[in-house]
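Hi Y.,

Following your request, here is the sequence exactly as I used it, all 393 residues.
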Amino acid sequence: MGTIGISSNGNLYFDFEYQGMRCTEHTTIVNTPKNLELMNDTLKRIEAEISLGIFDYVRYFPKSNNVRTPNSSEKGKNEVTFEQFSESWFRINKVSWKPSSQRVIRCNLNKHLIPFFGNKPITGITKAMIKEFRTGLGQVNGRRGKKISHTRINHIMEIFRMVMNDVVEEYGIDSKFLNIKPLKVVKPSVTPFSLEEVFLFLKHVRPQYRDYYIVRFFTGMRTAEIDGLQWKYVDFTSRRILVRETWENRTWVSPKTESSIRDIDMSPIVEEALQRQKVVTGNGPIVFPNRRGKPLDHDYLGRSVWYPTLKKVGLAPRTPYHTRHTAATLWLASGENPEWVARQLGHADTNMLFKVYSKFIPNLTRRDGSAFEKILFGILQERQKNKSNNNGG
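Below is the corresponding structure, written out as tokens. Let me know if you'd prefer a different format.
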């Protein structure tokens, strides 16, 4: 294992083993805690690349006497494959990703990117290859036998782009992704429930899940947020729900964005539902547990409870995420301050509200000029009144 040493003049140097030879590379970097940390990070990267057989001595130490080693030639450099580079890239960068992101990236590397580009030289990947790969993704069957969506293809391509961006930076080549734009995606239809439909659903849903859906409909919590809700984050004193952890892929993780970490105000109907649920769960830590005391499985809940209930009461099928859409539109339609609504939903600002939900709010979408007409009519009436008074005087 390599080390970072301190020379007699106080500068840092690398000391590591490469191809059976001890290598010492001096730098002009002064020994400070921050510089020492950066040097150690670089050393870890060097050793990771050595273990994968993709280490390029020239790139790190172009003026070193050791640059003539066999794998430092341009030929060796070009022989680094996509699989080798992407494995090193994943190992180095995964510490900055959430566990759920690590799983998604790892899955897409293994399932799509490495099988197609694995043995290709990393610097030999062309724009034509990239387009061919994307076209091929459009023929792949996803879940339930359907072709994978443009949204999914764009996600895979974004991971590919991230890898190739590092290739551009490390090898000093032109980006092959230039002018390759994401595929067009049809925005999903947003069809929130009316208040009458909400209560119709709650009336006919299986009783053991009624309070769960009451909280979903009247807080706008995301699936991972409500499924991961723990009693330690329910504050009955201040009547607030604290969103601090979520349940994704059977793992506790932090909320998706900084603005998602928030406090949600409890309405009376939500507070009553949670009080009832507290009696059901007793001393268990999870607010809405399954029979084993673990968070609910949202896939099972959708198949066994959500969609069957919609069908039973004759409501149009839509995803469980529409409970969140419903909360947003009901709040806005009732005249709540949009900034408050945005905070409840975990949005950074109100832009998303007006972009997604404005058409469902009459006062926001009216374009008939009646509001201005009402103001103008009042002004004209006032002027006419003043004119009459003046003439009479």
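Strands lie at 3-6, 11-18, 21-30, 234-235, 240-243, 246-248, 251-253, 262-265.

Thanks again,
Q.
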